From TrEMBL:
It comes from Sapajus apella (Brown-capped capuchin). It is an enzyme of class 2 (transferase). The keyword DNA damage applies. This is DNA polymerase iota. It is found in: Nucleus. The chain holds residues 5 to 476 of 738 of the full protein.
DNA sequence: TGGGGTTAT
DNA sequence: ATAACCC
């Protein structure tokens, strides 16, 4: 890695230099200080990141589909859960991931729509990502309703376009975290301020073109942008200035609120007596490294100080397509086959519309068991090339051979001669490759996806050990 | 707990 | 193939 040190909260050394450089800007009405100094910082660790977070996304999509739902308390139901709900419903006590029965008790007027089919949510989700990509191509998706955008370059360009008399008239858009005042002589403040203006334009475009509202957080890294985006909640935005970084991170009541510290790590930290951000910041790094491994320990320790050097990675098209269904009980091979066929039919549609070809298929099951918090098993195998070729073309029957492959995977996992009880089935297409439409040419050997992309990039390689059809 | 996703080991 | 993380 080239980067030596944190961004995030600091750059105290630079701050004073900037203040000196710019101290005469107001009086002289010149931006030379900005222009001279902005360019050399372009590849430094001072970034401007926005996190965009849609308000109760599934519920919004449903309200757009059926405007009569707009002024009613609305919940989106998957199986017996209300997975999300609009703000009308929240006022009446409905919470995310609340049991349907409990939600109805709390709020008898609650209107429920089924949200088990994610198709429209997925489509709207990608429209949002594509809209954000118009601002800057560096957009990273997080789930269906969140995106990070690296605005660093855009901000630099806007600062270079700025006329000299415009600087003193610049204003922040939305909230400033902790009500901190902006110093127009501080280049870090100016850059984040410009970021807040771009964030406002993004939210305007999302509303005008897609009818969606959401929050945005602007800060110097992904962690802080994400944390600050939720400070003012529906349909508002907040910018974090460096001086308030510690205030933000210490406003968290528990380490589990830090993105990147998940269920397992939280349990492990709690066993060490660590519950608050301060506990983690001051805990022995050596002991932490022994308990969690050096990589996790060093990463979460940095996170606890608000430091996060992870880049915004453009998501691009999805790496996998999957469909799953959960149920109380599936205990026969015939029933499993029917459920797999349903999942497959939807998946084949999606894969066809994407245009790329999956080269691997995977079957995932969850077995019934009273305990065991997380128990999923999977088997995968390469898709035979003659099946891949038929995938885009509606003419040939691709269902039959695919179902046969999947049932072989099924019988490899489940001994169908013994009683079994499944509660989930899922089919996943992955290892997606672009069509090879290139005509023969001298360079093709080096450019063809199956050779170049897979074996050298390390990103989409054949690292997984597939069970081959010959094994059966 | 749903119905998805990602990367690392 | 699994385990961790995210929504």
């Amino acid at each position: 890695g080239v980067e030596l040190e944190e961004e995030g909260c600091g750059n105290e050394e630079d701050d004073e230099a900037w203040a000196m450089e710019l101290s005469d800007v107001g009086a002289a009405g010149s931006l030379q200080g900005v222009h001279d100094q902005v360019l050399p910082t372009q590849n430094s660790s001072t970034r401007v990141i926005v996190h965009v977070d849609l308000d109760c996304f599934y519920a919004q999509v449903e309200m757009i589909s059926n405007p009569e739902l707009k002024d009613k308390p609305l919940g989106v139901q998957q199986k017996y859960l209300v997975v999300t709900c609009n703000y009308e419903a929240r006022k009446l006590g409905v919470k995310k991931l609340m049991n349907v029965r409990v939600a109805k008790e709390k709020c008898p007027q609650l209107v429920l729509v089924n949200g088990e089919d994610l198709t429209r949510y997925r489509e709207m989700s990608y429209k949002v990502t594509e809209l954000l990509e118009e601002f800057s191509p560096v957009v990273e998706r997080l789930g269906f309703d969140e995106n990070f955008v690296d605005l660093t370059e855009m901000v630099e360009k806007r600062l270079q376009q700025l006329q000299s008399d415009e600087l003193s008239a610049m204003t922040v858009s939305g909230h400033v975290y902790n009500n901190q005042s902006i110093n127009l002589h501080d280049i870090l403040h100016i850059r984040l301020l410009v970021g807040s203006q771009i964030a406002a334009e993004m939210r305007e475009a999302m509303y005008n073109r897609l009818g969606l509202t959401g929050c945005a957080g602007v800060a110097s890294n992904k962690l802080l942008a994400k944390l600050v985006s939720g400070v003012f909640k529906p349909n508002q935005q907040t910018v974090l200035l460096p001086e308030s970084c510690q205030h933000l991170i210490h406003s968290l009541n528990h380490i589990k609120e830090i993105p990147g510290i998940g269920y397992k790590t939280t349990k492990c930290l709690e066993a060490l007596g660590i519950t608050s951000v301060h506990d983690l910041q001051t805990f022995s790094s050596k002991i932490l490294e022994k308990e969690l491994g050096i990589l996790v320990a060093q990463r979460i320790l940095k996170l606890s100080f608000g430091e996060d050097n992870s880049p915004v990675i453009p998501s691009g098209p999805p790496q996998s397509f999957s469909e799953e269904d959960s149920f109380k009980k599936c205990s026969s091979e015939v029933e499993a086959k029917k459920r797999i066929e349903e999942l497959l039919a939807s998946l084949l549609n999606r894969v066809c519309r994407d245009g790329r070809k999956p080269h691997t298929v995977r079957l995932i099951i969850r077995r019934y068991s009273s305990e065991k918090h997380y128990g999923r098993e999977s088997r995968q195998c390469p898709i035979p090339s003659h099946v891949i070729q038929k995938l885009g073309t509606g003419n040939y029957d691709v269902m039959t051979p695919m179902v046969e492959i999947l049932m072989k995977l099924f019988r490899n996992m489940v001994n169908v001669k013994m009683p079994f009880h499944l509660t989930l089935l899922s089919v996943c297409f992955c290892n997606l490759k672009a069509l090879n439409t290139a005509k023969k040419g001298p360079m093709d050997y080096y450019l063809t996806p199956s050779l170049t992309t897979a074996s050298h990039s390390g990103k989409r390689s054949f690292k997984m050990k597939d069970t081959h059809m010959e094994d059966f």
